## 1
Amino acid sequence: MRTRDEQGYCGLVSEVLSSYLDHSLSASLERDVATHLEECVSCRHRLEGISFLLTDLKKLNVIDAPQELSWSIKRAVHREARKEQAISLLKPFPFLASAAAAAIILVMVGFQGAAVSPSVGETTAPLETLSAVDQGQLQRYILPPQIGGFQGAGLYDDQVAMLDSTRSNAPIRLPGARAVSF
Amino acid sequence: MPVLTKQDLEQAELPLMSDEALLSSSLDGNLVAFDLLVDRYYDRIYGYLYRFLKDSDMAEDLLQETFLRVWKKRGEFRNIASFSTWIYTIAGNLARSEWRRRKRWRMLRIGPSNNDDEPDYDLPDESAIPDQVVENRLAAAELIDEVAKLPERYRQVVILRDIQEMSYEEIAGIVQIPVGTVKSRLNRGRLILQEKLGKWYENER
């Protein structure tokens, strides 16, 4: 049975066991710990446990990082380097940078416009899903040229009237027609 | 440090150059020099990030982010510390931010846990099999689990010292704490691990 003093000293020793293993204690403290370890089985067991632990932890150092990782990092860095180079080339000509930015915005807006502008023959939504009764006030139908429609335009009154006369709860089925939501 | 010209670089044997010299060369846009730094460090930094986060996908993402930051900030590097310390500091900061982000996210999702330092995810990561060298795979897995469960401040120093085998001074530079604090955190971290794995080590005696 250990005395209270011995237990207290064990507590102190356990606080420095790790440094003792690393040989980073002062010479006198290291001697004191060594003396205590010779006498104290409990602290010796603790030291052995930490020692085993350190051996195993070192084994974890070997990690096979995926080989392709280095390539993907290099590619990303090279991309970044090209970007930096392009920016540094444009720096002396600030108006060119502005023009380039404007051109990019225009191109993007153009693409967006093209994406939403109607053209005959495309179907943006399945016609079967439309009901003239429910959606008549909100939607117009652009007919394909073969049945008198106009590309990119709404309907003439008589065509609207024709559609009105066919209104029912059943979905309208006009081959090639497309729906435009407003 | 002298600025190297292109002619110098052509003559120099890049692989023999120090990390700091390679970084200096990369300031002039020398990508070959920077590629060499990637080759030298990607494995080690990956190991560090993987052990810290225990998530191979996230480790890969942060590894790439680390090198991109090194590239972007290469002009800010000063030779006060070594390149090694610098890159580990960048990687460590990224890993800690990610860890805290996940912890916050988890707290928002399921409410606060009893132990803030416990990892907020513990899914087995089968995509990385880094521990063939440890004979008993189950035991290695247990050890990895326990390292990942260590509170962040202890985990970082244990990984850097006991797995990556760095000196106290290097760790102090990376974590930006005094050497004495490194020692005390290390001691505490090791004792926690030893207590958790005590039964397992009993069998080895």
Note: Chain A has seven helices and two strands.
## 2
Amino acid sequence: MSLPDIIETDRLILRPFKITDSAAVLGYANNKSFGRFLPPVPYPYTQKDADEFIARRVLEDGAKSKTWGITLKPVDKPIGGLSLRFNTDQNVGELGWSIAEEHWGKGLTTEGVQALIDATFTHLPDMHKLRAGADLRNVGSWRVMEKVGMLREAHYREHQLIDGEWIDDVWYGILRSDWEATKR
Amino acid sequence: MTLPEKITTERLILRPYAFKDTADVFAYATTPGWKQFLPVPVPYLPHHAEEFIAHSILKDREKEMSWAIEFEGHVIGGLEFNLVSKQQEVGEFHWSVGQPHWGQGFVTESGRAIRDLGFQTIPNLHRIQSLADVENIGSWRVMEKIGMTREGMKKKSLFIQNHWADAYWYAILRSEWEQLMSDTGGEA
């Protein structure tokens, strides 16, 4: 069993990043707000950063992680990304996402994340739990986690030093049994 | 120390690979002779070209430099220069060019440019070495043309498609390069 390359929702098509997506990635990622709560994302974000992001997608080891570009129908151009990273036994997964600032607050991330959770529990029978974490200040991100039925499991106080400031992290999780209960 | 990302020679532009080169890489990598002497995937598929370029983009240029060889607007091959020792004392060349562009001195022209820039730019660089399948006469002839000397043959050391090939190893030392430059007024 493996995850589909293409996941479709009402408004979105999630599909693998392509080598021609570099300009689109640069377009949304070179924005101070975009990466504010995403420590690995530099600002300013350059063409080279976008090319390296795409290069890592091209070389992604599907046994360790899988990444989809988020496209808004009917335009086949990424406005963000969703990823799933596996533990070694492939029974716990970690979700991650980012989306262009112009598309914040429309429920698009929630729609994409919900579809990815559904696809993961449907297509990977051994997957027991999915988790996700966010900077506590990134309210939009952990709101998504709550909307898709994840529960807050941890609040790590002053857990990361970012730009000289100690940041709290919150972690959420959803068990297969939680997910099945919502489907009944 | 690293060498420039973009280098212009008489006929060629050496510059970083980009994803827009995928079609050119696929084209030269599927010319009939290309795979004959190289440890490359056979058959060579479009995703191999994408992966090759992705690897090139993600290289740590402090250790591994690579250039696409561009001729008349198309990428016809590539050249790598890897610093294989910690203090950058030893550099190693790898190159390949599609068969239609063999025998026209393109690799010689590229290799000579990197050789000179290497010794000029990297103070610790003491030696540049390279290797080729003993059957790959075109490749080791390039090494000879750019002043490298055959140092030995490593038996069955290159795995190519389905067999172990013997490889000739060549090198040029900084002292030899300096001598060559003074003998030829920098034209070698």
Note: Chain A is about 30% helix and 35% strand.
